Amino acid sequence: MTSLLLLKVDSVIGNIDPRARLVSGFLFSVLLAVAQKWEVIAAGFLSAFLFCAAARLPWSGLRVRLIGLNVFMLALLLVMPWSVPGSVLWNIGNWTYTIEGVELALMVAVKGNAIVLAMSVFISTIDTASLGHALEHLRAPRRLVHLFLFTVRYLDILHHESRRLFRAARARGFAPRTDLHTYRTVSRLIGTIMVRSLDRSERVLAAMKARGYCGRFYLLHHFSLRMSDALFIMTVSVFVAVLAWMEWG
Amino acid sequence: MSEVLFKLNELTVRYGNEPPVLRNLSMDLVKGSRIGLVGRNGSGKSTLLSALVGLMDDFDGELWAFGKWRRDDSDFAEVRRRAGLLFEDPDDQLFNITVSEDVAFGPFNLGWPRERVITAVRDTLARLDLSGYEERITYRLSTGEKRMVSIATVLAMDPEVLLLDEPTAGLDHRHTRLLEEILKQSSKTLLVVSHDRDFLASVTNQTIQLENGQAVYL
Ligand SMILES: Nc1ncnc2c1ncn2[C@@H]1O[C@H](COP(=O)(O)OP(=O)(O)OP(=O)(O)O)[C@@H](O)[C@H]1O
Ligand SMILES: [Mg+2]
């Protein structure tokens, strides 16, 4: 479960201040989202790719994300050009498939890929606890931060609970097949997972209260900016500034 | 006459609409006493410990703790800061990602300054033979390791009363001895649930048995 959210890396990017990475990912994504010029989008894609390569992101983790995204983009390419006016490529009766439409769909696809790359390298490499703390340090609303941290924690509980239950079922000879017994067992297991996770979350709240929790979280580790962080921020700023200049300069 | 820390007066506790688990239970917990709590499986020992710190939503009867009658959730906030409850299932107790964050959680809630929290985390882990576990992921520990970390989360708060629910379950011989030593040397008020008679005999000097929802002094 966590591996879908989190990319494990052991390169310099892992040691950069999470706040710097968070802001970088945000700036990059916003810039790419609003960019209209092809050269800016292409350059943005290329630089996001370069950052991924420099951070030595695991290709396997990236692949899963990119495949998911591009299946969607392919669908977009099939559908979107029918609704954009312009020079006709094909037509079925009144419906026209336009070159402008294709261009727009491709632009969205490249933007999307670039943003996913940027998010992967800057944000997915931050572990969830640090991400929550970084958000809190950047003055994100506290409720939102807690919601986020708990969501991640409970996704994990859900995941572990389900692994435990399925293991218990397998230990007593359960092997999934396509028959009624399988469907019945699986649906019962899923029901149990839901109920148990809810129960568990209530007990965890009780455990938090038992230790004096009154709605505030405290951070054990503080962040502090170092030389490498400053270098990182400068590098990203140069990229962002050049891209912004190409777009609006 | 020593100070009474907890006083239960005709306490009745139930889950939902089930028949009550604890029925008109009365007992005192005097400062400095060391009580072992025994009883059959399902007799309500864990329920009693939760009720003492106000974690059973709904109870009938009266509950006195640390100088006041307590009823609402807000009444119990102070009780929870002064009495440390070790849950029976460590998976319920541990919810932070890393061990050090989990152990620091309680002390921070007590409002201690950061330096004191950091010292408390380090010292508690060291006392429990857990040095080096600081950055381990809590939910990936072994059962016994989780138990030891859970104990650390309670001891780190330095509570006046320890409410321990089967603290030795899943511990190896060496860690059981270590915990025994720590509890024997401590002068805190103790209420310990355990099925391990030797352990109880060595850390407590009185026994209460739960039977049909009532407390029987043995
Ligand atoms: N969340 C719950 N909802 C409903 N009933 C519960 C719940 N928790 C416990 N019970 C019931 O309350 C009774 C007492 O449970 P409790 O956990 O207090 O027993 P215990 O004395 O601690 O047992 P053990 O020695 O097995 O730990 C049991 O019959 C149990 O089925
Ligand atoms: Mg119990």
Task: Count structural domains of chain A.
Answer: 2
- How far the N terminus sits from the C terminus of chain B, by CA atoms, comes to 21 Å
* Structural domains of chain B: how many: 1
Low-confidence stretches of chain A: none
The assigned structural class of chain A equals mainly alpha
Helical content of chain B stands at 25-40%
**Helix segment tally of chain B:** 8
Average of pLDDT of chain A: 83
Helical residue percent band of chain A: over 70%
The gyration radius over C-alpha positions of chain B equals 17 Å
Textual characterization of the structure:
The complex is a heterodimer of chains A (249) and B (218). Chain A is mainly α and 249 residues long. Chain A has two domains: 2-126 and 223-248, no CATH class; 139-210. Chain A contains nine helices and two strands. Chain A has helices at 2-5, 18-34, 38-54, 59-79, 99-122, 128-137, 142-171, 180-210, 227-248, and strands at residues 88-92, 95-98. A two-stranded antiparallel ribbon of chain A has the order 1-2. Chain A is globular, with a radius of gyration of 23 Å. The two termini of chain A are 43 Å apart. In chain A, 26% of the residues are buried. Chain B has 218 residues and is α/β, with parallel strands linked by helices. Chain B has a single domain, classed as Rossmann fold, CATH 3.40.50. In chain B, the strands form two sheets. Chain B has a six-stranded mixed beta sheet with strand order 6-7-8-3-9-10, with helices on both faces. The model of chain B has no long low-confidence stretch (mean pLDDT 93). Chain A binds chain B through residues 127-129, 153, 156, 160, 200, 203-204, 206-214, 216, 218, 220, and chain B through 50, 53, 55, 73, 76-77, 80-81, 84-85, 87, 89, 91-93, 95-98, 100-101, 104-106, 108-110, 117-118, 121, 139, 153-154, 157. The complex binds adenosine-5'-triphosphate (ATP) and magnesium ion. Adenosine-5'-triphosphate binds at residues 15, 18, 21, 39, 41-47, 88 of chain B. Adenosine-5'-triphosphate binds next to helix 1 of chain B.
